[in-house]
Amino acid sequence: MPDGSSKWGNFMLRVELFVNDVEVSLSFYRDILGFEVVGENATYRALRLGNSRLALQDIRTLEPDHPLAQPWKRGLGVEIVLEVEEVTTLHQRVQACWAQVTSLKQQVWGLTDFRVTDPDGYYWRITEKRS
């Protein structure tokens, strides 16, 4: 069901990242990856890139007993995948202004991608869209 519908109705996945500094993270996602801000308040930014939704939330807003407020590396064990149409162009843009980026690589499964780590350590695989 490619239109986003399922037996549970229509759906969309949104990822919310808890970050040390919303403005630093916003700069990475907006200025480097190309997300646009679609909502905000003092400690939160809602972002969009095509059909992808991403939220940035200041980690200090979490209650002390919240599981994500614990002092461990954020994003550990998760690879966030973003499919884009112009992976080579985006890679050049990211590589020009961000240190933590891998080379562009054709993978054995046939797609070309690169990996990048954001200011808080969240690990992204940026890949070309499947046809």
From TrEMBL:
Domain VOC span(s) in chain numbering: 11-129
Top-rank lineage group of the source organism: Bacteria
SUPFAM superfamilies on file: Glyoxalase/Bleomycin resistance protein/Dihydroxybiphenyl dioxygenase
Pfam family, one: Glyoxalase
Protein name (Swiss-Prot/TrEMBL): VOC domain-containing protein
Biological source species: Deinococcus cavernae
Phylogenetic classification of the source organism: Bacteria, Thermotogati, Deinococcota, Deinococci, Deinococcales
